[in-house]
Amino acid sequence: MESIGTVKAFFIFFGSLAVLGCIAEARDGQVPLVGLCFAILTLCIGLFLRGLLPRHAWLISSLLIVGFLYTLVIDIASIASGESPVLKKVVDLFIRLFLTFYLLSNVKRLATEAQMKDKHNPKAQADG
After folding, report:
1. Which of 26, 68, 111, 117 could be stapled to 100 by a disulfide with Cβ–Cβ 3.0 to 4.6 Å?
2. What is the overall mean pLDDT for the chain?
3. Helix, strand or coil, per DSSP, at residue 28
4. pLDDT tens-digit profile of 9-18?
5. Rounded to an integer, what distance in angstroms lies between the CA atom of residue 38 and that of residue 123?
6. If you ran DSSP here, which 8-state letter would residue 31 be given?
């Protein structure tokens, strides 16, 4: 079971890596606008995870699912055009699928814990 800090670190790490990857692609002349948006959103979720979990876990889950589906479409297009080796893309997809489900399960569990903590904390309910 992962803590909020560990999941937060995952989002920040992978968001930062994705932003750097998009910047590297932009230097080659291609600006991956959608990929850059997903990367920045992932980084922002990492930065604000503790505040998002109790009430906006659906937003985090949606970003994870849509991000994986976007990657799937891009990789299928890359394979179909012959730009990338099939085996490399399939391995990349399985790794991303594993990470997506890993993060989804932890986000759902942490969101449930955060909601339970809010229910048992009368001061948080009075402030919210």
Report:
1. 68
2. 88
3. coil
4. 999 999 999 9
5. 35
6. -
What confidence score (pLDDT) does residue 123 get?
Answer: 61
- Is residue 9 within 8 Å of residue 54, measured between CB atoms? no
Three-class secondary structure of residue 51 per DSSP? helix
- Collapsed DSSP state (helix, strand, coil) of residue 3: coil
As a whole number, mean pLDDT of residues 63-83 equals 90
Q: How many CB atoms lie within 10 A of CB 28?
A: 7
- Give mean pLDDT, residues 1-13: 91
Q: Give domain limits for the chain.
A: 4-114
pTM: 0.81
How far apart CA 88 and CA 94 sit, in angstroms, is 10
DSSP string, 75-93: HHHHHHHTSS-HHHHHHHH
Q: Which DSSP symbol is given to 61?
A: H
Burial (CB < 10 A; 0-12, 13-18, 19+), residue 104, is middle
In whole angstroms, give the CA distance from residue 37 to residue 29: 17
